[in-house]
Design goal:
The complex is a heterodimer of chains A (85) and B (514). With 85 residues, chain A is mainly α. Helix content of chain A is 55%, strand content 0%. The chains are: A mainly alpha (85), B alpha/beta (514).
């Protein structure tokens, strides 16, 4: 698992799955469908990504393809970091 | 007339019309009719009887809609439970309402798996999506798809009348334990008729529903849309606003119901103007009053739509709406009573006040609930004898100012309940979660004025020496245990909390501090 993915996973398990098993959270688990994050939760996640990785999440990037699974978030953060914005 | 008869009438007149768009699929009225009839017959075959409770714990989707109508047609009472509900609260609701059947979704298994076994009343669990083998005994568990074979036979008419309960919707109680609001068929039909009348809903409307069906504002989009023979486009959430906007443009949506937090997210998007929302003709906002800036921005960006600002509570669904031509005249008002309803203010002694005063809001009409499920004392506090024998009116506990022309302005609550995003938040429930955090010595939760939420939840926290938490730490911890509308927006760390002479926490100065 990449360092970025590890960090994001830890953030979600620590903050949104307290008291619940983290072993159900795979890299492909849909955070929305499983009720792990709701709209407020995604706004929290975006704040975390912006602060931790120094990126800015644009309006059009707030889509499940970028944010709904650990794999998606990891790939998105890497793309953003590589493009330097 | 029963609540589902309104849908059945539309299904008879418009069998081939697309009634529902959900999960990327389109369902005609005839399909929803057949699928819900089969599930209703199945429920009856599994022993679900008239007045039994059936809990529906599902995300927004076609299965949830089918389940609601199936339960009604079987003569039972549906209990919609938010998919955001955590295990402890789900456990409480199942214990309190003693349902004989739970209809749920495999995606929420991590919440219900550990809970259903303790709910002794449950005989059947119907699961949408693949059922894992470890879920439980196969004679209890059924797959949602498998419950609908065509040979289930007809529904046996259960003998339901409009005085029977159609739904129990749970809302926060002041003691911290949720209360089940009992709604008869008559209550819900009355509310649906009044609201769809003042909105002027039509059969050619396409309604975008991204509000959860467990929240009455979401639920009524389906009830009213299906009553009118309109089309409902259902989304599980507003978490990805761009996806909702794409869908609205593609489906040529005409009615968009929301709450102020949703409009705030929408207006923050730079790309809003890129979506073709030219078909939109009605926007409705409920929960808190919209800020004047939101009203101005919505009307500037979406001038084609008429904006309705509204107010309600689960106990009677809707209380008031602001006629659109009044938005410029009294933008901070949540409006006045709707058709077939009377609203007025009373003083501390229950004496009726004339317009131009401040007092507790009382609601009179056939939409007022039948009480709180198995809570006669709490029911007696808010349902009081009305004008005629046998009639009860709803004392809401909400304090309002009413102007000379009868328009209402929300001021606050009579008790210490917080009204945030239009939902009641019990400070005790939030304080309970804060107290469970290691190193939290004391905590007090109050409501503070907020332009977007009505009131925002604010927590004052005293830490045991040696412990350190940031504001974010507390907020995210609360998100793990509470539905997001209950989570504090602000956290302030204080060395101690003010106390009364008996040593109880005194919240008055905290509200002042805030």
């Amino acid at each position: 698992m990449s360092d970025a993915k590890d960090l994001i996973r830890t953030y979600i398990v620590d903050n949104f799955l307290m008291g619940r098993r983290g072993d159900n959270l795979t890299s492909e688990t849909s955070l929305l469908e499983k009720g792990i994050l709701d709209s407020t939760g995604f706004l929290e996640l975006i704040c975390f990504l912006e602060e931790r990785f120094g990126i800015t999440v644009a309006d059009e990037e707030m889509v499940p393809e970028n944010l709904d699974t650990l794999n998606a978030i990891d790939a998105y953060v890497r793309r953003k970091a590589a493009s330097g914005v | 007339m029963l609540l589902h008869n309104q849908f059945e009438a539309s299904a008879e007149h418009l069998p081939d019309k697309v009634a529902l768009v959900a999960d990327g699929r389109r369902y005609t009225y005839a399909e929803i009719d057949q699928l819900s009839a089969r599930l209703a017959a199945m429920l009856q075959r599994r022993g679900v009887k008239r007045a039994d409770r059936v809990a529906i714990f599902m995300p927004n989707g076609a299965e949830a809609v089918i389940a609601i109508y199936a339960v009604l047609r079987a003569g039972a009472i549906f209990i919609p439970i938010s998919p955001q509900t955590k295990a402890a609260k789900l456990h409480y609701i199942l214990q309190d309402s003693t349902p004989t059947c739970l209809i749920t979704d495999t995606r929420l298994a991590s919440v219900w798996e550990g809970v259903f076994g303790q709910a002794g009343s449950l005989r059947t669990v119907i699961v949408a999506g693949p059922v894992s083998e470890r879920a439980g005994p196969p004679d209890t568990f059924l797959s949602f798809g498998a419950t609908a074979p065509p040979d289930e036979g007809p529904i046996v008419h259960p003998g339901t009348i409009d005085q029977d309960l159609a739904a129990i919707i749970y809302t926060s109680g002041s003691t911290g334990a949720p209360k089940g609001v009992m709604l008869a068929h008559l209550n819900m039909i009355t509310a649906a008729n009044s609201v769809s009348t003042y909105l002027g809903l039509r059969s050619d409307d396409v309604i975008m529903c991204a509000l959860p069906l467990s929240f009455d504002c979401g639920l009524y989009q389906v009830l009213m849309g299906f009553k009118k023979g309109a089309r409902v486009v259902l989304e599980p959430s507003f978490a990805f606003p761009i996806k909702v906007l794409e869908l609205m443009a593609r489906e040529r949506v005409t009615v968009f119901p929301g709450v102020p937090t949703m409009f705030s997210m929408l207006l923050a998007l730079d790309t809003l103007a890129q979506f073709d929302l030219s078909s939109l003709r009605i926007i409705t906002s409920t929960a808190a009053a919209l800020s004047e800036r939101h009203i101005r921005d919505l009307r500037t960006l979406l001038p084609q739509a008429t904006l309705f600002s509204m107010y309600g509570l689960t106990e009677c669904k809707r209380v008031s709406y602001l006629p659109p031509d009044q938005l410029d005249v009294r933008p901070t008002s949540v409006g006045r009573g709707m058709p077939n309803e009377e609203v007025y203010l009373v003083d501390e002694d229950g004496k009726r006040l004339s317009p131009g005063s401040v007092g507790e809001l009382v609601v009179r009409g056939s939409h007022v609930m039948r009480g709180y499920w198995r809570k006669p004392e709490e029911t007696a506090k808010c349902l009081k004898p009305g004008l005629y024998p046998g009639e009860f009116v709803l004392h809401t506990g909400d304090l309002f100012r009413m102007d000379d022309e009868g328009y209402l302005y929300f001021l606050g609550r009579k008790d210490d309940m917080i009204k945030s995003r239009g939902e009641k938040v019990a400070p005790k429930e939030v304080e309970g979660v804060l107290h469970s955090l290691e190193g939290v010595l004391e905590a007090a939760v109050v409501g503070v004025p907020d332009p977007l939420l009505g009131q925002a939840v604010k927590a004052f926290v005293v830490l045991t020496p040696g412990y350190r938490y940031s504001e974010r730490d507390i907020i995210t911890s609360c998100l793990a245990s509470l539905e997001s509308f209950m989570v504090p927006k602000y956290v302030e760390f204080v060395p101690d909390l003010p106390k009364t002479s008996n040593g109880k926490i005194d919240k008055k100065p905290l509200t002042g501090l805030a």
